[in-house]
Amino acid sequence: MSLGALVGAANDTAATNADATQYSFIGNYVLSKRTLIYAVGTRLNNKDAANFSLGAAGPITRDVPAAGADVGGVQIGIRHLF
């Protein structure tokens, strides 16, 4: 099993002060030599005029939050090497 964490920040020096901080956590668990499962959780905290959003892939649409609104997401999956 492996675990990881990430913290990222955007610092806006303009008058709008559109700062944001993102926290992400990931866990991997090996099921076999070629297969693992994983889970990722992310929280994005927007401040004042910031309206950053999380990127999306596939059938999920990306919504842009209102200014200062926070967003979060969870992703789980399995990886198998052929």
What does this 3D model show about the protein?
The structure is a single chain. With 82 residues, this protein is an all-beta fold. The chain has one domain (2-80). Helix content is 0%, strand content 51%. A hairpin with a 4-residue loop joins strand 2 (20-30) and strand 3. It is elongated and about 55 Å long. 5% of the residues are buried.
Any key phrases for this structure?
elongated; four-stranded antiparallel β-sheet; 82 residues; mainly beta
Please provide a brief summary of the model.
This protein is mainly beta and 82 residues long. The protein is elongated and about 55 Å long.
Arithmetic mean pLDDT: 89
Largest sheet descriptor: 4 strands, antiparallel
Task: Give me the strand/helix succession.
Answer: EEEE
End-to-end distance: 21 Å
- Sheet with most strands: strand arrangement: 1-2-3-4
The geometry reads as elongated
* Overall radius of gyration: 16 Å
Strand content: over 45%
Assign the structural class, choosing from mainly alpha, mainly beta, alpha/beta, alpha+beta, or little secondary structure. mainly beta
What's the domain count?
1
Q: Helical residue percent?
A: under 10%
Number of distinct beta strands: 4
The residue ranges in which pLDDT falls below 50 over 5 or more consecutive positions are none
Total helices: the number is: 0
